[in-house]
Amino acid sequence: MKLIRTALLVLVLLVAAWFGVRYVWEILPIYIYSEPQAEATNASQIPVLMYHKISPDLKSGGLGMRVTPARFNLQMQYLAKNGYHTVPLTELTDFIKGNKTLPSKSIIITFDDGYLDNYKYAFPILKKYGFTAAVFVVTDYIGKTNEFDAAKKLQMVNQLLGWNEIDQMSDYGITIGAHTLKHVSLTDITLPEARYEIENCKLVLEEHLKTPIEAFAYPYGHYNSQLKEIVRKSGYTIAVTTDQGLVTPESDPYAIKRVRITGNYDLRKFINEL
Ligand SMILES: [Zn+2]
Question: Does the pLDDT value for residue 44 go beyond 90?
Fold first, then answer.
């Protein structure tokens, strides 16, 4: 009996030690990596980070689309400590046209689909570091769940942002962007149907927020030259894709590349992507 108890105790201690070592390993880069503070140079390329869910809840889905709040906080802490500053997504338009220079260490943070956890977990962390971001919402599903993906078994059921949360985030300075009415793959429907989705999502947001909506995100990253043209003609100034890469002054403002951050990225991997 005593032997079993001792064995159990050793096991518990070993598990605790394992988690302790893992935790230290995870946070170590915050103390080891120290980049020089932002120089007085201009940025030649800018990372646009792409997130979806920020949640500790295993039931909300896998780590491909979900970053835990602890890791997200560590990433934001790293950026703040190393002199990065967030730029509103819409300022990229002038950077690309060459009308505006942005200082080195400029970075843009984006969230797709408008999950409620963005408000619950990411928003307080962004505020803590004085960061801004852009959130792309699906207007027919505001205050509802992500039926558009859950029904197709692409995702677990997740609650989405309601107007109340969207208002608060917008008031703080978060850019609210359009992600269509129904989160449809725009390359799989007719062009008039796509135009309806693109135009009306913008109208719904502008009607409610009383501010021009300039940013658009293609659902599933599906786009082509005709869709880019519809987005431009609808009055958006910038549109983001899921194509991987950094933004330069030569980038196409209607096909902005991003850097996908998944929940599997530890801080070292995150730093490598910047
Ligand atoms: Zn989406």
Answer: no
| pTM (2 d.p.) | 0.90
CA 151 – CA 104 distance, rounded (Å):
43
C-alpha 255 – ligand 1 centre gap (Å):
15
DSSP 37: P
Q: Could you tell me the distance, in angstroms and rounded to a whole number, from the CA of residue 52 to the centre of ligand 1?
A: 8
**CA–CA separation, 225 vs 228, rounded Å?**
5
- The residues placing their C-beta within 5 Å of ligand 1, an ion, are 112-113, 219
Only one residue has tokens 């979806």, namely 52
Ligand 1 centre and the CA of 127: distance in Å? 24
Q: Which H or E run contains 259?
A: strand 256-260
What is the maximal distance between C-alpha atoms in the chain? 77
pLDDT tens per residue across span 101-148: 899 899 999 999 999 999 999 999 999 999 999 999 999 999 999 999
